[in-house]
Amino acid sequence: MNKKMTLKNASVGKNLKIEALTGDYCQKLREMGFCEGLDVCKLSDDRCVVCSICNVKYAISKDLSSSVVLNENQYQNPDQSS
Fold it and tell me: Could you report the per-residue pLDDT of 11-26, keeping only the tens digit for each?
């Protein structure tokens, strides 16, 4: 019932932590530099997903971005009231 937040459905500009890599392309994502525990920021969501990890920008397909599971509870911005 509780759907996991992925890089595909995360909000642009939100800093989150990578919780897990899933699916058939986990190894490819790791080779590219995606790794559990790293901070990721989604920069744009157009024809592909552009994100930043360790000051490196990546453009990946939306399909591939759905394999990056994020920890949405990791960062609670105290300046934002919910």
Answer: 999 899 999 999 999 9
